[in-house]
Structure formats: structure tokens, C-alpha cells
Design a protein that fits this description.
This protein has 39 helices and 15 strands. With 972 residues, the chain is an alpha/beta fold. A hairpin with a 2-residue loop joins strand 13 and strand 14.
Length: 972
């Protein structure tokens, strides 16, 4: 092994005659003996003793801690009552200081949070920036905070880098900022998601935030950690720490605790990987930052260093930087200014599993630490500090400050030699406690579906003692008990969603989940709870609340309904979930049912408060941000318009978003979003036509702009291979369905005809679409379409591609719905004419093509086929397809076309004679004054009549009418 860090170390004076001289000499001799001579091992061992000597020699008392360590919390509570410091310097982001007052209104554990969404000085890909610092009751940091806030005259100063500096010091080349806590390779029990078997909802309370660790003490040198785990007969670092550090230091005196913690911090620091190879490459800068801030505060306030206490991680207590200490002449470190990023601060709920996942701790380790803390406090001997008004906690009296003058510090004595040479104290087995665990775990296992019995409780008891003995422990730890329970109860079957290890965690303390009190919530969250108060539900609880809203019987609940729909739009899925009721354009439910989990998902509601004062303001900001984003499209803008109409009663804002949609549509150079644009603009036009006397100006502009825009892009879209048939069909659908409105607003139909004539596609599906467009414009008759399709079916080289043509015809149902009977005819002709050797291989391709490219249009064909084909087998033999009759026979100059006689006789003539006003009005409009013929005169269908002569001279019109009538009758 070699000393890993490359930090600049100050020169340590010769301490051969100092307090720790015997221990230094003993370690150096041992290193020489085992290593065969002085070298790196001796340098490391003597160096850690020098670090302890240096840290304890500093006049400003350094209190080393470990994150969420009951031993550190107990030592802190004892030391605070003994020393009564006037100033506490705490290793925590300095800009989080105002949040500490709000801890009174919360139930621990909670996390302090700094949040920034609008970045200035950071890469935009990092947004949003999010930092959390969890606080639990079994932590030395909470004891220091509670003491400082509850004791008059005590000042609490946070000295660690700000949230802004956390990201300033993050390498810009990295895609995302990394957490301060690196991954712990020794956590073998962790599940792949890092939650350690905890429910994902509880383990993810911190989200993707960067965790700020306070007092992280884990070996960052993998070989050392593996060595300790192997020889300590443990599975992960948390268990090793509990066995060899927590338990021995729980009842140790303060001097012993302090020296051992600095010793461990120095050892881990010296055996870490080389600087700059991991997330710890900024540790030295953090230490320079903190010492500089402390010296600045002392210079500004003139406080006596002997009455101050510096609480930091043991890793930082053994700091080798030149800026270490408060002695006169110690150089300061230049601190860079913050960026212009605007940071928002608040509290979010946390949990034991969230802390474990955030900082890569073993599953259940924080719960076990909390249980150990509660047991130590219950034994007596120490009275912890607690903030007044703390929720769900035992109230304890305020500590009374003793204003006695600060006594001279006691001389440092060597406690390390005795601690390191003394064999571990073997505690006796607490049979009552272990028996209680065994009985309770069997009871829990039976409730969760395991076939456990009293025999299993006895087996767990004996196996726990056996495992402790194998691991050289006289007293079984919670980890031994958990392993024994898994071995004896779970075996190889997990009947429910909870395995035995999870049941052991529940038994030993469970996953405590914190809660932010009402007074500590941001204004938006308080406004949400106030506006939902008429529902009469306990929304602050973590259970799912069912809300039933009868808006007809109780119209005063309509504002609650509006708010719930906005929250449903803003919050993640599952927070506010509608069970019954919907909100769409032109529709409002008269009854609604909701599942509300606002108390369970406090973090999501709190983070909404970072974006605005009300949820309506947040929604408006998000919609405006979406339509002005660099990648915004017309479809996105139309979706924003729809949301604004549904949730924000502001016509001005809707018009603003609509105008932006027009801008985006005119600037688009692709038609990828044409189907979405068509669907949304149709819905919006229908809404305005039903609710308002006239269309808004932006709607009219959108239609005219879209008409010209799609006409311009249509020839290119037909020939572009990257543009799909669905997009081209949507373009035609926009042009044909909006044509009447566009023409009334001043558009020119010649532009559409010219665009269709200029289109020359090669893909079969687009060719079929072009034929449909030509048919709609009158450039191609149905007879010509039928003839072309017959030619395709008659060409064996084209038959394999015929499904593509059908796909185009199916997509043409969007712009030209009148082609539905013809498409049914074409499919029927294909099935009738193609032989089985061709049809059977062709059929799967047809089905897959229709499924992929016309899924929502196939029901139109099915309904049309149901109207066309007979409904019973009895009529099938005599049924003839309506398109099989020859209705297009040529008409001679003197002949009257078939069917013309209906014009001169029948019920139609009688109806017209009984009600002549309609005919008179039409005749007057056309300028005809011939008058009515007598009833007995020759009808208009006689060969000598003027109508008959006219029809004989121009037979095409009559033939077209007859063909149209025949087709309509067949479709019916």
C-alpha cells in the first residue's frame, strides 16, 4: 500500500517527546517488523497519529462526527451539556441556514433542499439543480442544531460551501453532477435499484437530488474495505462500523471518542484513491473553504475560540491543508463568487430508506441506528436536545445555559493506546431482548404468509447466538438476528411482497418517514391545502384519500374540482388520480371521484412551490416555457392552447399561445406533426363554433397560414422518402377539411390544385393518396379510379405491392371520407379476383399494413362493409355488388338515358304540383317564366319535350346522375 492523497501537507513538527510519542514508536516498530523495514506502511501509521495530535492541538475544539451515527449523537449531547459553547460551526451548506428554524414544524427525518430551475452560469443540460441534506434525530448534527436554536445566546454558523459552489466545483465535462457520497462496493445486500428492498416510493423521496454528506466515513480504498469486511466477518461496511466503532464508542468518554474518530478519519483519508479520481477530489477545497469562513466569522465577531465548537466529519477533522487552524497568520483561501443562478430553498420529507439509497448505505442500517439511539436514550445517562414543537417526539425541556466563564482546556492525554490495545468488551447476551425479537418476527412472518411456528422462533434464537459466536461476538447484533431469521424462516420461498429481511427491518424500527409541517410549507403548498379544505379530508396523512364531488348537489365544490384538474396536469402520476369524471373541450363532469395522495407525495407539491405562488401561475409558466422552447412545434403550441382553455380562464393568454402556434407553423420545414396538428385544430375549431359567436383571430390566421403552408410543402412531401404516408394524408386532411373556411378567409383554391398537379410520387401508398386527392378535386372520376385499380390487380408484378396501395387509400379516408365505399369495393374485388396461391401469401401483409398505417381508420371500412354486404346467409346467393351493374352505357343523341323517366312521373311530380312554391322560387331565381304545364300534357320525359331533347344532346350529365344514384343505393 502507498499513501494515496496528493494534498499539500503542512510540515508536522517533531513530536518524539509529545503526548502520543509511545504510540507512535509502537506503531512504527510494528510496521518495521511486519514490512521488513521502514516504508509506506510506517509512514501511514505514524502519520495518522500526527493527524490526531494536530487536530487535538487546535485551540478551536474540533468535534469529529459520522453521518447518522448514534455514538456521535450521544457524544455530542454529552459534550454540549458539559461545554455549553457560545458558537457552533457546522459542516453544512451555508445558504441553508434559514431553513433550520423550520425544523420545529416537521417530523424527522426531513431533508433541507436547495433547488434551481433557471440557470445562469451552469450548463443548461444540468437543469434543474437540486441538493438535499437529510437530518435525522439520531445524528450529531441535529443535536447541535437543537441546542443552538433552543439555547438563548448561542449562534449557529454553517461554514460549508454553498449550493452554488457545489455545482461550480463539478467538472463541466460530466453529463450530470455526482453526489458527494460515492458508491459503496461492499453493500452486497442492496437491491439493483439501490433501495435495499424498500418500496420505490419511499426510497426515492430525494429524487435525483445531489446528496450533501455530513461526516461520511467509509473507506474509499476498495482493498482496505474488502480486507476489513473479510476479517471482520461481516457482509457490508455498515455492519462493520456498528460492530467495531458504534458499540465500543457508545459509552466511551469524550476524549476517547474524539481521538478514535480522528484516527479513523485520518486512516481513511490516507488510504483513499489518488486525488482527482473520484467525487472526493474537492475535499481539500471544502476544508479550505470552511476554515476560511470560520476565521472570517471570528474576526468579525471577536468571539473567544475556546467557547466555540467546530462540528465536521472525521474525514475533514484530519485535514492536511495549509489553511487548517485559527492561529494568527494562517492564510485565507480565496472564495469564488456565486453565479447569478437564483436558488430556492425548502424542506422535503425524507425517510430512512431514502437516506440509505442517497448515500449508498446498507439496507436497514439507518433504521438499526435509530433503534440503537432510542435504546441508548432509554437507558438514561444522557438527555438529548430536541426542538420545541417538534412533531411526534417526546418533549424535553430546554437546556439551561450556564454562563460561567470558559475554563482552560484540559491537557490532552493519550487514550488511543489503551483503546487500541484493550480487547473488545464482550457483552452478555440479552436473552429477553433476543427472545422478544424472535417471537415478534415469527408473528410478523405469519401475518405475511409464511408458515412459521414456535419452533422457528427457537431456531432463530439459537441460530442468532451461533452466528454471533462464529463471528467472534458474544452478543448477537441485529444483523446476526436478521441473517438467522432469513435462514430459519424464509428458506427458499417468499409468499408475499415482503421478504424476511424486510420484516426484520420493520421489527427493528421500520422505515421512519418524515413530514414537513404546514407552517414550513411554501406558500403554494399551503394554498393548495387551504383551497381543498372544503372536501373535509385529512390530506396531510400518508394514506390515500378518496374524494367524492357531486357538483350538482354541491356547486361550491367546483373550485376544488378545478384545482384538482390543474394538480393532475402538473404533478406526477398517482399523486392526484381521477377515478370518475373527465375534463375535455366542451365537456364538464357533474360527478367526480378522486384518489388523493398529497400527504404521501409532499415532495412533489413542495417543489411546485419553487416555481410560483399558485398552481395556476406554475401552469402558465410551464405552458409559456413549452411554446417558447427551442424545440417547440405547432402541435406543442396547440396542446398548450387546449390546456389553457381547460385550466386557465384567461382569453388573453389563450390568444397569446394561439399566435405563437401560428408563428411556429409558418416556420416549420417538415410535416412530421401534421396528424397531431390536424387533430387538435379540428377539436379547437369545433369548440369555438359551439361556444362562441365567431372564431378568434388566431384561429382564422392558423387556418389560412396552414392552408398556404401545406400547399407549398405538398409536392415535396409526396416525393420525400422520410415523410410517411400518414403525414401526407394528414396534410390533405387539413387542406380539404379546412378548405371552405380557408376560401372564405381569402385563400385561393388554385393553389391547392396546382400543388396536386405538381405532385409526382413514386411510393405506392402515396400514389394512391394522390389519386384520392385528384378524385376530391374532380380531376379523376370514380370510374377512372376503378379502372386503375383493376389494372393493378391484373398486373402480376404489381400484386405484391397492392397492400401499399390499399394503405394509401385507407389513409385517404381522412381527407376524402366519401371514398369509403370505393375502398370497400377495391378490397372486395381483390379478394374476388386473386387466386388462392397469390391471395394467401398476400393476406398477412395486407393485415399488418392496415394495422400499422391505418389502425384508427379500419373501423370506417368495417362499418361501410356492414352496410354494403348482406346481413344474412339467405340473401347472400342472390346478392349482387352495387358496383357490378353497368350503369355507364353510352347514350345516343336521340335516346333518353335510363332512369330519366322518373323526372316526369311518379310521386316526385305529384309532390311538386301540390307544393309549387319551391319550384316557382327556383324558376324565378333562374329566370324561367314558362309556367306549369297542364296535368294531362306530355311530360318532360317524352322524346319531343325540351328536357328530353336537352338530355339527348348532352347525355354525360344524366349518366353521371344515374351512376351517382346507383352507387348511393348500393351503399345503403
Amino acid at each position: 500500500m502507498s499513501a494515496g492523497p496528493s494534498d499539500t501537507r503542512v510540515d508536522v513538527p517533531d513530536r518524539s517527546a509529545g503526548t502520543f510519542a509511545p504510540l507512535r514508536a509502537q506503531l512504527e516498530a510494528a510496521a518495521t517488523t511486519f514490512a521488513g523495514g521502514p516504508g509506506a506502511v510506517a509512514e501511514i501509521l505514524t502519520g495518522i497519529v500526527d493527524d490526531v495530535d494536530r487536530a487535538l492541538g487546535e485551540e478551536l475544539e474540533i468535534f469529529p462526527v459520522c453521518h447518522h451515527s448514534p455514538a456521535s449523537a450521544l457524544a455530542m449531547a454529552r459534550r454540549l451539556r458539559e461545554k455549553q459553547p457560545a458558537v457552533i460551526y457546522l459542516e453544512l451548506c451555508e445558504d441553508l441556514r434559514p431553513l433550520l428554524e423550520e425544523l420545529r414544524n416537521c417530523r424527522l427525518p426531513v431533508a433541507l433542499q436547495a433547488f434551481a430551475s433557471d440557470l445562469d452560469g451552469f450548463p443548461s443540460a444540468w437543469a434543474p439543480l437540486n441538493i438535499v441534506a437529510p437530518i435525522s434525530e439520531a445524528s450529531a448534527e441535529y443535536q447541535a442544531i437543537a441546542y443552538a436554536l433552543e439555547t438563548p445566546g448561542v449562534e449557529l454558523v454553517l461554514v460549508d460551501r454553498s449550493a452554488d459552489h457545489v455545482f461550480q466545483w463539478t467538472p463541466t465535462a460530466s453529463a450530470e453532477p455526482a453526489s458527494d457520497a460515492g458508491p459503496e462496493s461492499g453493500e452486497d445486500d442492496a437491491t439493483p435499484d439501490g433501495s435495499g428492498g424498500q418500496p420505490a416510493e419511499e426510497a426515492a423521496l430525494h429524487g435525483e437530488a445531489v446528496g450533501i454528506g455530513m461526516g461520511d466515513l467509509r473507506p474509499r480504498f476498495a482493498e482496505l474495505r474488502s480486507y476489513l469486511l473479510h476479517h471482520g466477518r461481516v457482509r457490508h461496511w455498515s455492519e462493520w462500523w456498528d460492530q467495531y466503532v458504534e458499540q465500543p464508542l457508545a459509552d466511551a468518554d469524550y476524549d476517547t471518542y474524539r481521538q478514535v474518530m480522528v484516527l479513523i478519519g485520518s486512516l481513511i483519508r490516507r488510504l483513499r484513491p489518488p486525488a482527482g479520481s473520484g467525487p472526493d477530489d474537492r475535499d481539500a477545497d471544502r476544508e479550505r473553504y470552511m476554515w476560511t469562513r470560520m476565521r472570517q466569522h471570528m474576526a468579525a465577531t471577536g468571539v473567544d475560540r475556546s467557547r466555540c465548537l467546530y462540528v465536521c466529519g472525521a474525514f475533514h477533522a484530519a485535514s492536511p491543508v495549509e489553511e487548517f487552524g485559527t492561529a494568527p497568520g494562517t492564510p485565507d483561501w480565496e472564495i469564488s463568487p456565486r453565479t447569478a443562478t437564483r436558488w430556492l430553498y425548502g424542506l422535503i420529507p425524507s425517510s430512512h430508506s431514502a437516506i440509505e439509497r442517497q448515500f449508498d448505505l446498507a439496507p436497514g442500517s439507518v433504521s438499526i441506528a435509530q433503534a440503537g439511539w432510542a435504546k441508548a436514550v432509554g437507558r438514561g445517562g444522557v438527555t438529548p436536545y430536541q426542538l420545541a414543537g417538534q412533531q411526534a417526539g417526546r418533549k424535553r425541556g430546554r437546556a439551561k445555559k450556564q454562563p460561567a466563564a470558559a475554563a482552560a482546556p484540559a491537557p490532552v492525554t493519550d487514550r488511543l493506546s489503551g483503546f487500541l490495545s484493550r480487547p473488545p468488551v464482550l457483552d452478555e447476551v440479552d436473552e429477553a431482548e433476543l427472545l422478544g425479537w424472535c417471537v415478534d418476527i415469527v408473528r410478523l412472518a405469519r401475518r405475511n404468509g409464511y408458515l412459521a411456528s414456535t419452533a422457528d422462533a427457537i431456531a432463530v434464537f439459537e441460530t442468532s447466538i451461533l452466528l454471533a459466536g462464529i463471528r467472534h461476538r458474544a452478543r448477537p447484533t441485529p444483523y446476526d438476528f436478521s441473517d438467522a431469521a432469513v435462514t430459519c424462516i424464509e428458506k427458499d420461498v417468499v409468499p408475499g411482497r415482503r421478504d424476511v429481511r424486510r420484516l426484520c427491518e420493520i421489527l427493528l424500527g421500520g422505515d421512519r418517514i418524515g413530514q414537513v409541517g404546514y407552517d414550513a410549507l411554501p406558500p403554494l403548498a399551503r394554498d393548495v391545502f387551504d383551497r381543498l379544505a372544503p372536501l373535509g379530508l385529512a390530506l396531510e396523512t400518508r394514506t390515500i384519500q378518496r374524494a367524492l364531488l357531486d357538483l350538482t348537489a354541491r356547486p361550491e365544490l367546483a373550485p376544488c374540482s378545478d384545482l384538482l384538474w390543474v394538480l393532475h396536469r402538473l404533478l406526477p402520476d398517482g399523486v392526484v388520480r381521477p377515478i370518475m369524471g373527465e375534463r375535455r373541450l366542451g365537456e364538464r363532469s357533474i360527478q367526480e371521484s378522486w384518489d388523493l395522495g398529497l400527504g404521501r407525495h409532499q415532495r412533489a407539491v413542495i417543489e411546485l412551490g419553487y416555481e410560483g405562488i399558485t398552481v395556476e401561475q406554475v401552469l402558465e409558466k410551464r405552458l409559456r416555457r413549452s411554446v417558447w422552447a427551442p424545440d417547440a412545434t405547432a402541435a406543442v403550441a396547440l396542446a398548450a392552447v387546449e390546456d389553457a382553455i381547460l385550466f386557465l380562464p384567461s382569453r388573453r393568454f389563450v390568444d397569446e399561445l394561439g399566435a405563437r402556434a401560428v408563428e411556429l407553423l409558418s416556420a416549420e420545414r417538415t410535416v412530421d406533426d401534421a396528424p397531431e396538428v390536424l387533430r387538435r385544430i379540428r377539436r379547437l375549431l369545433a369548440h369555438y363554433r359551439n361556444t362562441e359567436p365567431e372564431l378568434p383571430a388566431w384561429c382564422e390566421s392558423f387556418v389560412t397560414t396552414g392552408y398556404a403552408h401545406y400547399c407549398t410543402l405538398l409536392p415535396t412531401a409526396f416525393t420525400d422518402d422520410e415523410t410517411g404516408v400518414r403525414q401526407v394524408g394528414a396534410m390533405l386532411g387539413f387542406l380539404f377539411s379546412m378548405e371552405s373556411l380557408a376560401l372564405s378567409l381569402g385563400c385561393d383554391r388554385a393553389q391547392l390544385e396546382l400543388a396536386v398537379r405538381q405532385s409526382h410520387p413514386e411510393a405506392p401508398a402515396k400514389v394512391a393518396l394522390l389519386w384520392a386527392a385528384q378524385s376530391q378535386l374532380g380531376l379523376l372520376s370514380v370510374a377512372q379510379l376503378r379502372s386503375r385499380c383493376a389494372e393493378l390487380l391484373g398486373n402480376p408484378l404489381v400484386v405484391p405491392a397492392f397492400p401499399q396501395y390499399l394503405s394509401g387509400f385507407v389513409q385517404a379516408l381522412e381527407p376524402v371520407p366519401t371514398l369509403t365505399p370505393f375502398v370497400v369495393e377495391v378490397i372486395s374485388e381483390a379478394f374476388a379476383r386473386l387466386p388462392d396461391p397469390v391471395l394467401l401469401p398476400w393476406l398477412p401483409k395486407l393485415i399488418t399494413t392496415l394495422r400499422e398505417q391505418g389502425r384508427e381508420l379500419v373501423p370506417l371500412l368495417v362499418r361501410e362493409a356492414g352496410r354494403t354486404f348482406p346481413g344474412s346467409l339467405a340473401t347472400l346467393d342472390a346478392w349482387a355488388p352495387p358496383w357490378s351493374t353497368d350503369a355507364t352505357a353510352p347514350v345516343g343523341p336521340g335516346a333518353v338515358p335510363a332512369g330519366v323517366e322518373v323526372l316526369s312521373s311518379g310521386p316526385a311530380v305529384g309532390l311538386l304540383r301540390e307544393h309549387p312554391a319551391a319550384c316557382d322560387a327556383v324558376a324565378e331565381l333562374l329566370g324561367c317564366d314558362a309556367g306549369w304545364q297542364p296535368a294531362g300534357a306530355s311530360g318532360g320525359g317524352s322524346p319531343s319535350s325540351g328536357a328530353a331533347l336537352l338530355l339527348g344532346a348532352h347525355p354525360a350529365t344524366a349518366s353521371a346522375v344515374v351512376e351517382l344514384l346507383a352507387g348511393t343505393a348500393g351503399s345503403r
